Amino acid sequence: MTATLNGASSAVAEAACCAPAPGAGALTQDEAVTLAAKFKALADPNRLKILSIVSSSAGDEACVCDIQEPLNLGQPTVSHHLKILVDAGLLSREKRGVWAYYSVVPGALEFLSAALIPQESK
């Protein structure tokens, strides 16, 4: 009889401990892959700083030459990081003569922040 009571109380305890099933706010596989690629691009401190520099620049755009000095990196290294951010869809590139200007893709930062904050808590 004790076994039955313990078994019943165990079932109740298990039911109380289980988290609710994922709701409509859970990511789909495609969304998870897209977000992972974007966050992977931001996983490097230099790229995170580049995004910060570009988003806070006058006119919301920056040239490679504007980014090199604050990072204390060479032009090829900065260009490599910029390419990763462009490929991830976080920055866009516009060529003007011999210079390339970078700007934050509209909605990219909002997309990332929305992914971090569940809809219920907004």
Automatic annotation (TrEMBL):
PANTHER family per record: ARSENICAL RESISTANCE OPERON REPRESSOR, TRANSCRIPTIONAL REGULATOR, ARSR FAMILY
Domain HTH arsR-type, residue spans: 27-122
Domain of life: Bacteria
PROSITE patterns: HTH_ARSR_2 (PS50987)
One Pfam family named in its UniProt record: HTH_5
UniProt entry tagged with the keyword Lyase: no
Protein name: ArsR family transcriptional regulator
An MF annotation (GO) of this entry: DNA binding
